[in-house]
Structures are given as structure tokens and as C-alpha cells.
Structures
1.
Amino acid sequence: MPHHCCVPGCVRNTAATPDLSVHGFPSDPDLKKKWLLQIRRDEVRGKFEVGTATKVCGYHFIEDDYCAGGRKRKRKTAKTVRKLKKGAYPTVFEGCFPDHLVTTKESRKRPAERLPVEPKAKKSRTSSSDDPLPLTASPEPSTASSEPAESQPGCDKHCNCVLGLLSQIQELEDDLESERSDHEETKKELTSSKAKVADLENGVAVLRDQLLDRQGRRDFRSDRILADDVKIRYYTGFVTLGMFMACFNFLRPSAEGMRTWQGQRTRTGPRLTAKAGAASKLPLIEQFFLVMVRLRLGLDVVDLADRFELSPSTVSRLFTTWINLMYYKFAELPLWMSRKKVNKFMPPCFKEWYPTTRTIIDGTEFFVEQPSNLARQSATWSNYKNHNTVKALVCISPDGTVTHVSPIFEGSISDADLTQKSGLLPLLEHGDSVMADKGFDIQHMLTSIGVKLNIPPFRRGEQQFTPDQVVKTKKIAAVRIHVERAINRIKQYSLVAGVIPNSLWDVSEQIIHVCAFLTNFQPALVG
């Protein structure tokens, strides 16, 4: 980059004079102030600022100001750069400063003496050889001959100024062309950079989505959900964290030695084989939480696999394993209540009207996906529901506790056959009474074991009920409704409320029994 001398009136620069030596201002404040004073510059009031590019050319220094020798510049044309001595400052300013910056003026030469001139004498343009007054007699030639000699320094100065300006113009044109070239390259780089930035922004957006997705899946874990009772009930069906942990702690000893389901499925019992994998890496409480979420919300294995960062096959095996474990562990508990316990927790409405009631029964159907087997299609078809279903008998105590659930049967089975095959009759004792709906024509079954049946009366061809029959119907309906409420609680588990897929056919009975048992963790239906 070319440098210009900053001394007022000096037009020298390195572009016009490549070998010109230029020197930057010293870092010492006092010496710098002396430099400014010498070159007639005021940095405070003169709007003059000293920078790294502010230079003073070597013409303003005397020979004694330089050190002996020199050093080479690392440029294409290496030239010797002269180094100033410490404390040196510019002192030579001949022909540089404008008049308003010159503090002292040189003394004017004494004019030559002139001879007296006669008044009214006509001056002759020619004179004789012996004329003693050549300056006065011929002033014009003398003036003409003296003017070029006096104007020569000013002309040189003017020429130097013009040359300096032309050099500056050429330098500015070169700089402009260079700037244009740099501008074009900068535009290309900017366009390329914008494309790269767009690609990076797209990449960042993808990574942000992946991060949020992973954070969302991480948030869907038991440690966050179980901190809120409202979320616990929504995702698992348990009312409080205490209920959730009580059920998990009951299952944990068996779950710790549990092996993940890997073999052929069977209705008679689970075949469990050992297999290490993602399921074994998931903590037991997370596995239990996963199973409860699927029961309560009915989520598909693909959805759960994404939430828990597992494969769908792993989720399916985990669910089958835990459902079988829960089914067999819950079956060990004595759900059927003794006569003494029934009487202890019997609500006042039963004590007043039906004090001998041992259980309230009703049949309920669960939708299943249409089986591929034609015989099973026919057996599971329900004309009442107009769908393929399976049917189970649900028994509750007078306070609303689920005490017995029968095995599941095809949806075409009648209520009487369902009761006979449900396993309920051996549980009843002499003197008990059973409450049911009109469709349960099972009086002959109960009479043989000394059990009474309470069902709404039939009209038997009469146009309307008698007043006593109306009262009896209302009383039975008022208390029998609780079994329907209990069934509704079971079907609040979305996996059995919707259509049970064929993939879960072999564990559908276990699922229904587990959902029925889990309703007992909720508050009592009848106070």
C-alpha cells in the first residue's frame, strides 16, 4: 500500500518515488508531541489524527538522524529501509509549509541604488555604450531577464504538485479497480456463504427437532409422570403414587427373576425364556409403567417403542411378559370376600333391603378383531353387539369391589351358560342371595345350593306392573346399577374398551382379568 507524507505542503509518496523512506510516529508521547510541533500539526484542535498509516518522509530528516546500515523488507522488491536514531525528529521543511504556517520569514535583499531621473525627460529605449545606468535606462529587459530566474522555484513546486496529484489520481484509480475486483469476489463469497448458512440452518433445524423429539421421549418417563397425581391417574389409572408403588412393590420380587417372553404363546401358561437385550436395560419400574400406559391409553407398540426408545418387538415381548406375570400374581390373592367381610363393608341401602346379598353379577362383552379362523368368527359373533366379541361374567360385592371374573367365552354364549361355566356357583354358600338382571334365568341353579336370586319382576302377560312390582324393580335397579359402574371402570382401560387386536388374542383373558383387578385400587363405588 503506498504511503504519503503528512507534512503540510509535502507531496512526496512511495507510489511516485518507490525508494522513498517513510517513518511512523514514535510511541513516546513527548517525542510524538515534538514531531507534531515540528511539522505544524495539532492533533487536538487541528482535526489531525495519528494512525499506523501516518508517515513522515525521509526528506525532513538530516543524515545524522539515521542509524548506520539498514534492514530488508519482506516484499517482492526488497529495498533498504533506513532506521532513525532514538530521539530523532524532523527538522527539514524547505519549501513545504504554506505561508500561514511559517513563523519566521527570511530577510529581504537590499534593493540596488537607483540614479536620479530628470523630470519631464523622455526615456529612451536605447542607450549608448557609455550609459552608466543600465538598470534604469533599460528596465524592461532587466525585468524580463530577472523574472524567469525568480519564478523558477515556484514553477518547480507547481510541477511537483501536479505530478503528485496525477500520481494520487492514478493511485486512486488503481485502488478503485482493486476495490471493484475485491467487491466482485466478496459478492461471490457472500453468495456462497449464504448458501452454506442456509444449509447449516437446515441442519440446525433438523438437529433441533431431533433434540426436542428425544427430550420429549425422555420427558415421557415414570420419574416425571409419577410426580403429578393427575398425570398418574391419566396414564396409569392409579389414583396416587402410593397406589402405583404398592402394586409395583407387590410384583417386584417376581419381576426381578422374570425372564422375557420369547417362546410360543399358549393359553395354559406363559413360556418364558432368558434373553438379554433392550428390555433388560430398561428399569423394572419403567417396564411396569410402560405396561400400565398401554393398558390405560391403549397405545400401539410403535408409539410406545418411540416413547421409550425401544423396538416394537421389544415392547410387545415386554407387555406379554408383564401381563402374564400380573395375571398369575393377582390370581394368588383371595379376591372372593367371606360372608363376614361382606357384612362388615355392606352399605346401608343393602342392609335395609337386601341384607343377604353376597354378590351382584352381570355379563359384559369386549370387542375383538375379526378372527381369520371361520369357526372362531362364527363363535365370537354377537347379534346383540353386531360385532365379534368375547364375554365374561363380572361379580362385585355390595360395596363395589370386584370379587370374581370368569374366563372369557365367545360372544354368542347365553347368560345362563356363562354363569354355569363361570366358576361362581362353587363360591356361594347356603343362605346367600345373588342379584342380577332379568336375563339371568338361573334360579334353578341357585335353588339347589340354597341361594336366593334377586332379579326385577316379569310382567308375565300382564299389561303393567303392580305397585309392589314397581317398588321392587326400583329397589333392585337402585343397587344393581353398581355392577354396571364397576364394569365401566374396567372399560376405562382403553386397551379393552376398544377392539382387542388379533395379536393379543392369546393374552386377552389375562388383560381383562388384570384390568378388572386394577379397578380395586380405586376408591369404593358405594359408600
2.
Amino acid sequence: HTVMEKTVAFAKKIWCVKKQFVLLLTPLIFLPVLFFLPLKEGKCLYVVLLMAVYWCTEALPLAVTSLLPVVLFPFLGVLSSSKVCPQYFLDTNFLFLSGLIMASAIEEWNLHRRIALKILLITGVQPARLILGMMLTTAFLSMWLSNTASTAMMLPIVNALLLSLFGDKEASKEPGQLSEVTSDEPNQNKICSVSSEIQQLSLEETTFLNGRPDAANKKKEGEYQKQVWKGFLIAVPYAASIGGTATLTGTAPNLILIGQLKSVFPGCDVVNFGSWFLFACPLMLLFLILGWLWIALLHGCFTLRVRKKKVEEEAESRVKLVIQEDYKRLGPMQFAEGAVAFFFFMFAALLFTRDPKFVPGWSKFFEKGYVTDATTAVTIVTALFFFPSQKPSFKWWFDFKAPNNPIKPLMSWKRTQETVPWNIILLLGGGFAMARGCEESGLSIWLGSRLQPLQNVPPPAAVLLITVVIAMFTEFASNTATIIIFLPVLAELAVRLQVNPLYLMIPGTVGCSYAFMLPVSTPPNSIAFSSGLLMVKDMVKTGVVMNIIGVLTLSLAMNTWAFYIFDLSTYPDWAKNHINSNGNTSLVDIVNATFSPANVTL
């Protein structure tokens, strides 16, 4: 008995220092890689494997792991420091930073809340339509804000509306678990950035409804309420993950794709904000609608209600009243809010029309290659730091008694420092540094040579396989780390198959955002799970089908409209003429000369 207690106590101590063990043992475990692979390729693979393990286990903070190339590449002779460090602030990083600043301005002046409540008023308040409204709202916000911020903002609104629909914890006392969720709401509020809705609205909800169900239906009614509540909680984080794929700035993997394309295929100018939006927005809407149908069906939002029709109408009218009152509480749109809305519209419009590919964009008036998406985005967000947040008054110049207060701009740098997640910038930089190391060391070519068994796989099947593998991998690792690891491999696989690299790299990029099955898969999933009502099996049951829907819709998109937007039917010149930075030989020529011929008949 004493030995068992000591063993358990020792195991607990080991668990407490597990991250330290990972930090120390991982470099030792991967040491053979340095001796059994070609010298330079082995050193680069060693760093890649080390960073992959640290990213997946979070033995170090993700941003700190991203800095390892600055240390390890120069020491191991893979890449000089002067080549590694610039990767942390490329053109793509500025585009992402601009998107984060614009999102901060939207949150600063509460524009996102006005947009959310307006969409909910339009979609209606029946449970199925309310879920659709929540998903559309969250997805739209996630296109511009971070997925985590969108989820953190919407979940308190969801809970407040459900309190109006089902009442307080007395309504759910019978099934047992709903009361726990209501009583745990303060814990939810600590996680979410917007918590005032529940505090304001729950005070109004002191009874369930005027017509309580009879004793025979009471338990069934409680179970129905619990299922609907779960449906709402699950729908919000899923919609955030889906919505983030629609724009280049919506989620980090999209920008990592752009950065790695510029690094590996410098001649590729096909993917920009406009062309990506044309491809990804229809895909996002299709997936969102199909996902909504599945969530609403699974959680009983389309079935006949146990409650009487009059009671149901009363509940829905209460929800509508709550939304209307919350919207009225915002008051008329202020000058600052309107100004941010204007700059937000300009931000999206100028990025979309710079070079949309299907028609000439406004960038044709400038020298080719000089004006990029980053140039456009930084131009707009710069205006936020000097444009006034109060309406200018011409009379103020002649009213000498008026207070002489400094003009407050829409955004301050202090606010930017507080709200922008700078760790993501480092994470992007770490991915770009890793990609540059793989290219310079020849590791990408070596990995491509190991992919010979996949040469006979039809490209459509390869797309499906890639999406499935990455969607499963990203359930256990961050989507950013996942795409950083897989993109160089997909680029080389495309070279081996002699297909357009975008045909494999785009589904890999989008697929890594389809993490729906586990609470640890994404921060939005974790926020929803922390409510206390959801169980892991609830997310797995819903998420498995969501993953299947996502994989199938993505494969459909890649083999239909994406073919025309990105010209995927041809093997492009920018892939054929890619110059390896180590010499003057094209990547294709190196592969053909070193390994078996890569001319595969498709």
C-alpha cells in the first residue's frame, strides 16, 4: 500500500514537469536524424521535427517555439541569421497585422455588436432560424476578427437569448444539467470578452413561461431544451472556424499559404485577397448552410415541439424583444462607429478590387509588383490613427470659450499594443523561416523523393486524401503548426505529380481549419466546452459529420469553380520555372535529374 502511494505521488510529480521532460528528451530522441540523412537535409529535418513536437505539445509557448529557427538554423549551418530574421516580417505579416488592427478598431467602437444584433433581427427567432442567424453572424465576424474573439463575443449573446427562450435554472431543474450551466455562467463570463448580456438579461428571466408543460411532458421538455442549448453552443465555434477561411486575413493558415508561395514559387501571383475571396466565400457559405442543417437536425430544432403553440410563440416573442431592446440600447450610430464602418468597407473593397484577376484591378495604374495587398491594408489602417473619433466642428475654431481638448483618433497605439495578438506574428514568421530553411537545405526535394508511391494517385483522390489527413491531424495540433509542417511537403508532392501546386496546397490550407471534433482542437471549441453543458461525445458526434461535410464540399470546390479562378487545369510556368535559391537549376530539373522522371500521365 505504501509503495503504491509513493508510486502515485511520484507519477504526479513527473506529470507536473512533463513539459520539461519533453523539452529535454525530444532533442535526444531525434539525434539519429542528424546521422542517417544527408548532412544539410538532416539538420533541417531535425529542426522541423523538434519544432513540430514543441508546437503539438506546447512544451514551449507557440511564439517562443517559432523563434527557434533564429537560433538553430545558424548554429547548425542550415541558414544564416541574415536570411532567417527577415522571414519574421514579410509582406504577408504586414497584411495580417493590418487585419488585426482593423479588427481592434471594430471592437473598440462596438461595431461588431451592432452588426451581430442586426443580423439576428433579420434572420428571425425560431430556434432553427436563430441558430442560422448565430452562425451567419459569427462567420461574418470571423472573416475579419479572430475566430476566438468572434466566439467569445457571440456565446454570451447566445446564452442570454436562450435564457429568454427557456427561462432560468428552474426551467431545467428536471434534466439536471441545464441548471449547472446557468449557475456556472460567471465562469463563462471570465473567459468571454463580452459578458454584460447575461448579467443584464438574466435578471429579467425569473420564471419559465406562463404555460408550463404538464408532468408527463416535463422531462421530455427538459431534454429538448438541453439539446437545443447544446446546438447553439456548438454552432458558434464551428461557424467561427468556417468563417475564418473566407478571407486571407481571417485565419493564420491562409496567410501562411501566401507567404510560402512567395518563398517557394516567387513567380506565383494568382492568389491574392480578391481571388481567394471568390473561391473561399462560396465554399464557406455552402459549408455553413449544410453544417447548419446538420446541427439543427441533430439537436431537434426542426422537430415538432412538446410545448403548446401559444407558449412557443410567447417564448419566441420574448427573444425578439430582448434582441430589439439590446439593439436599442446601443443607441444611434455614433460618428466614430460610422467612421470605422467606412474604413472597414474601404479596407475590404480596396483589397478585393486591387487585382481580382477576372477583371483588371486598380493596381494596373501602378508599376507591376510594387503595390500589394499589404500596401493597401497598411494604407487604410494608418488612417485610423489620425482620423478623429468626434465629428469635427467648424464653429469650434471661432468659439474661444469651447474646451481645447486634443483630438482623439479612432485608434491609439496603446490600444493596439493591448489588443493585437503579437504572438501570431511570430508564429507566422516561424512558419516562413521553416519554409525557407526547407528550401535552402534541399529538404523539400528530399521529402518529394519519398513521395513516389503517391505518383499514381489521381489528383482528385490526392485532394481528398490530403484534406482528410490534415483535418484529422489538426484535431490534435494547432492549425497554424499543422499547415507550417504540411505545406512544404504538398508543394513537393505537386512537383512530383506535375500538377498545379495550388491544387494540393489550397485544400491543405483550408482543411486545417476544419477542426470540429475535440475541445482542444481550437480555442473557440475550448470556449464553448467550458460552459459545462457540452461533453466530449457531443462534440465528437457533431464534429465527425461536420468534418465529412467539410472534406466533401472542399473537394467539390477544388474540382469546380476553383479550376477557373486559379487555372488549375494547367501546370503553370511559375512552377516550371521555379529557381532553387541554391543554384540556377529549376526545382523540376533537380527532381528529374536526381530521381525517377516526374512526367506523370494524369
